[in-house]
Automatic annotation (TrEMBL):
This is Exodeoxyribonuclease III. Residues 4-248 form the Endonuclease/exonuclease/phosphatase domain. GO terms for molecular function: double-stranded DNA 3'-5' DNA exonuclease activity. NCBIfam families: exoDNase_III, xth. SUPFAM superfamilies: DNase I-like. Its EC number is 3.1.11.2. PANTHER family: EXODEOXYRIBONUCLEASE III (PTHR43250:SF1). Keywords: Hydrolase, Magnesium, Metal-binding. The gene is xth. It is an enzyme of class 3 (hydrolase). Its cofactor is Mn(2+); Mg(2+).
Length: 255
């Protein structure tokens, strides 16, 4: 079984890239972020024609998350991260797929930092930690998957010294990620590639892709019931080089 995450940076504008990648790799479950489409604007027919059923939480022009499943119907269990009824941003959706509970998330960027957006990011992170604790308490296989907008360590960024003040790399954010993982989750990519410099994002500016000046922002965290089944993990980095590609590449794990 293969689970993947892909920040598509606009599901309609980059639909050919998404469909090409789905046909090439045939993952069983896919978590998408940054749909940038309203609920009624999700390309359900094209996704279905590619062999995938889907649940999604859209938002016009911004955010948006979706879970796709091949050969199965995802059973939605939650829409929106609990803990703040006033938060209307579409950043979390959860579904049961083939015996695994999948939480697809798009954590806030938080820039500029410090500031209101950074404060929102930290509050969102706190809510995620609380919800993750609740998921672990159920004792079922769970994967928290998506664009965390966190560079966990210096190994995950091409030039750490240039990112010290950025909301992706500030100590508060890295500490929050570490606290989350230490509560019982396994960072799947790092578990299998502990010393390898791996990136999942390359900015459109300054020829970042050509220079391999990347960041690791997209993560798959596994509960103990799932971590023991982990077989392999990787990044489909070549997708970033396709025409009209997202600035993120798909990341995947296999059981």
């Amino acid at each position: 079984m293969r689970i993947a995450t892909f920040n598509v940076n606009g599901v309609n504008g980059r639909l050919p890239v998404l469909l090409r990648w789905l046909a090439e790799t045939e993952p069983d479950v896919v978590c998408l972020q940054e749909l940038k489409a309203p609920q009624g604007g999700f390309p359900e027919a094209a996704i279905k024609a590619a062999g995938y059923a889907a649940v999604w939480h859209g938002q016009r022009s911004w955010n948006g998350v979706a879970i796709l499943a091949r050969g199965a119907e995802p059973i939605e269990t939650r829409r929106g991260l609990p803990g703040d009824d006033d938060d209307i941003q579409s950043r979390y959706i959860e579904a049961a797929v083939k015996g695994i509970l999948i939480g697809c998330l798009y954590l806030p960027n938080g820039n500029p930092a410090p500031g209101a957006k950074f404060d929102y990011k930290l509050r969102w992170f706190q809510r995620l930690v609380r919800h993750a604790d609740a998921l672990l308490a159920h004792g079922v296989p769970v994967a928290l998957v998506g664009d965390f907008n966190v560079i966990p360590t210096e190994l995950d960024v091409y030039k750490p010294e240039r990112w010290l003040g950025d909301a992706l790399f500030r100590p508060e954010v890295r500490d929050a990620f570490t606290r989350l993982v230490n509560r019982g989750w396994t960072d799947a990519v790092r578990e299998l590639h502990p010393d390898e410099r791996i990136y999942t994002f390359w900015d459109y500016l300054r020829n970042a892709w050509g220079r391999n000046a990347g960041l690791r922002l997209d993560h798959l965290l596994l509960s103990p019931k799932l971590a023991g089944r982990l077989k392999s993990a990787g990044v489909d980095a070549h997708v970033r080089g396709w025409e009209k590609a997202s600035d993120h590449a798909p990341v995947w794990i296999e059981f």
